[in-house]
Each structure stands twice: as structure tokens, then as C-alpha cells.
Amino acid sequence: MNAVEELLAAVHRLTAQRMSTPVCGTAGHAAGHVCLVPSARTAFPDLQKAIGSRFGEPRSLVTGGTVDPAASVRTGLPLLTPFGERVVEMRAWACGDRWLGCGTTHDDDGDVRPVVLVAEREDPAAGLGRPASWVDGIVAVTGWETTRVRTVDWAAVEARLGTPLPGDYKRLIEIFGRPGAFDDYLQLQFPDAHVESMDIVRDTEWLDEWVRTHGSRLRDPYPVYPAPGGVLKWAGTEPGEGFYWLTGDPDPDRWPVLAQEDTPGSWIRFNGTTAEFIYHMLTDPGHPFSTARWYDVHWYQDYGHPVPP
What we know:
Blueprint: H1 3-14, E1 33-36, H2 44-55, E2 59-63, E3 66-67, E4 87-95, E5 98-106, E6 112-120, H3 134-142, H4 154-161, H5 167-176, E7 180-182, E8 186-188, H6 200-214, E9 231-236, E10 242-246, E11 257-260, E12 267-270, H7 274-283, E13 300-302
Antiparallel strand pairs: 1-6, 2-3, 2-4, 4-5, 5-6, 7-8, 7-13, 8-9, 9-10, 10-11, 11-12
């Protein structure tokens, strides 16, 4: 195991959830975080790449010594607190109730050194009232910033699919912008995703072609869209669960959600909207696919794959 691999192993231990308050061993640093000091020979870009390969696309808190004016407790500010004005670069990743930071700082001699740290992350939804919509609720509990809303040519997407799509799903795609996962679990399918299996159009076309060419009983007792009333996939997970709409109603906002575990025929139906399903998945420990059983604080991991603007 090389130095970077050892550092990542330490990061994984420190980002474990529901642990006690982290205490840093660096003199003068208050509790609430732990600093890891990589070798001075370890390049910052290499560290960022290694951490990003596991935790996704980071937020840039400090670039060239300039702090992002939008930096706040919700976006990773606790990662800057231990270093004051010494920070030269800092990237931030959310991971449940922890922030993970990677950057460079000036040491006591004025030299620039790499640093990695893990800090406590407050619940971004703490103290907030009932959300105005399920989409707003998802944004609130994940602490997602809505300043980078994506524009999507929905007319073109829906024309290629041959159907309108639920309005709350489209809003989620616009807000979260790029493929990723809620709580390192549920992965939305996006238009124009980098990976075919995460592209709602190409995956739908592929599944339709497969069923017509080879036949399949994996979605029984439901037909596969574009068959009338067929199931249309909108999300999945690494373990193999799939999340679909049952498309029989002419109004897509009334489509129920069907969840299929990795065993054929194991369907669970939810008579609610897409965003309602995700919100309860994140917040309700009694939800069949709940992540609230494992995480008290939630996040969206941006995979960083580029999509057309």
C-alpha cells in the first residue's frame, strides 16, 4: 500500500458515520476535525484525483488563496477554520455527517504543504420547517446549492422517448445537474449522461431493443416501455435495485413508482411522486429502501461526468 492508498484508508475510517466528535492532534487546533498530513512530496492534484475517484466531484472553497465568497457552513466552511488565512487551495466533499477536505496551506515557515482533513458536518435541514415541495425537501436535507441550475431541452428528450416525463423528476435533473447518487446509493438517470446505463434515453432504447430481440421476463408481470402501460426506468443502485415509473396514466405526474430489488419479480409499488419517493427514502427509517437507517445527515455525490450545457 503506497502513501496515497494509506491516506485514503484513513479517510474512509474517519468518514464513518455516527462516530464521536473528531479531535485533531495538531497543536492549537480545536476539536471537531482531524488533520492528516501527507508527505510534502505528494502533489495536491494527485491527492484531489485520488479522493475524487471515491467521493466524486468536489466544491472549490479556496482557489489561489481566494476564498469563494459563497462559502458557508452549508458548503464546507468548517474545513477552513483550522488554518485561518493560511489556506492556498481547498476542495470539499460532503459525506453524511462529515466534511472531507483536500488542499494546500502555508506552514510556519511559509512553505506550501498539502493537507487532508475530515471535519464535522451539521445537518443542513436542522431547524427547517416543512418544505414547500418534495423537491425543496430533497434540496434542504442534502444541503445542495441551487446556484448552478442546468438547462435541459426537455422537448427533445421527451420527443425521443415518445412521452412527457414527470415534472418533479425534470426539476431534480435541472437542480442536481449531473449524474451522481443520493447517500451513495440511489443514482438518477439523466439525459445525455456519460455512461449509457445512467442515460434515461439510451438505457430505455437499449432495454426496448433487448426485449424485442431476445425477450425477457425480468420485468414481469409488467411490460417494458414503450409498450402501453410499460415500466420506464428513472434510477438504479450499485447493488442492482431498479426504480421505474408505471406509465399507464396519460398524466406523467400521476405515474406511481415501482421499485424492483435484485431478484426478478420482487416489485414494491409507491403511490406517490418521484420526489416524494426520494424524500422519504432519505428521511424515513421505515421506508423499504431507506438510507435514514444508516445516515443521519444526507448528501448528493456528484460523479463529475460532463454533460452538455
